[in-house]
Amino acid sequence: MMIGPKSNVRVWVACGMVDMRKGIHSLAGTVQEKLQANPFNGHIFIFRGRQGSLCKALWWDGNGFCLLTKRLERGRFVWPQTEDGKLSLTWSQLSLLLDGFDWRQPVETWKPTRAA
Q1: Which of 12, 16, 42, 57 to pair with 77, CA 20 to 30 A apart?
Q2: 42 near 27, Cβ under 8 Å?
């Protein structure tokens, strides 16, 4: 059995701050109450703490919840702010966010100058 979400799973970022002491049940409740979403739909929900260096991901794999935590040793996660409290990200944007980059404006570091 492979662990990990299917390719059609959406990633939702909970805009704003969440108490990082919350566990699976409290975060699932936050998904239902504040994000107005179903935590059992197989999508991934990402939360950030007040300090900005810690985030948690909640995911229902069809059999139970998975809770993943990431802490940056340096820097802070670049977090969005929206009116409705949530934002959908692509897998590429999620990867940049979790690596501590500004996922909103990725910058190319190299461009080819000649073909031959």
Answers
A1: 42
A2: no
Nearest in space to 61 (alpha carbons), one of 45, 40, 77, 32: 40
How does pLDDT run across 34-45, given as a tens digit for each residue? Answer: 999 999 999 999
Whether residue 82 lies inside any domain: the answer is yes
Domain that holds residue 62: 11-98
- Judge whether 106 and 91 are in contact, CB under 8 Å: no
Number of domains within the chain:
1
- Let me know if residue 105 belongs to a domain: no
Structure pTM? 0.83
Helix, strand, coil share of the chain (percent; to 5): 15, 25, 60
